[in-house]
Amino acid sequence: MTVNRCRSLRRRRWLTARVLGAIAPAREHQSEPADRRSQRDERAAGVRAAVAKLPAGYREVIVLRYFEELSLDEMAQVLSLRRNTVEVRLSRARNLLEGSLRGKL
């Protein structure tokens, strides 16, 4: 049980760091080179496109979890689904998203 919990936490941190970090608006620092900003913008566009290509059920759980920062219980209530169903959809959505982003970021 502990191993699975650690894996879930690690997966969530990966997705948060990789996906949301790419989507977050770039801070305009004068010391940051323009090419680095453009790379970040390209990466953000790629992530947005990958999320947009997800099937609707998977896209909505990604948005609710990582953009709206809802808990699994809150997501289940909003979607009128059982918590277990939300967990499965979220896991499948992460796998699809990771597969589509692999090698692009």
Description:
The structure is a single chain. The chain is mainly alpha-helical and 105 residues long. The chain has one domain (2-24, 33-101): Arc Repressor Mutant, subunit A. It has five helices and no strands. The longest helix has 22 residues, at 2-23. It is globular. The termini are far apart.
Provide a quick synopsis of the model.
Helix content is 77%, strand content 0%. Helix 3 (56-67) packs across helix 5 (83-101).
CATH H-level superfamily title: Winged helix-like DNA-binding domain superfamily/Winged helix DNA-binding domain
Number of helices: 5
Mean pLDDT: 79
The biggest beta sheet is recorded as: none
State Rg: 15 Å
- Decide which structural class fits the backbone: mainly alpha
Number of structural domains:
1
CATH topological fold name: Arc Repressor Mutant, subunit A
Shape: globular
The ordered H/E elements are HHHHH
β-sheet strand percentage:
under 5%
Q: What distinguishing features does this structure have?
A:
Arc Repressor Mutant, subunit A; 5 helices; 0% strand
Outline the fold blueprint.
Layout: H1 2-23, H2 34-53, H3 56-67, H4 72-79, H5 83-101
Helix pairs in contact: 1-2, 3-5, 4-5
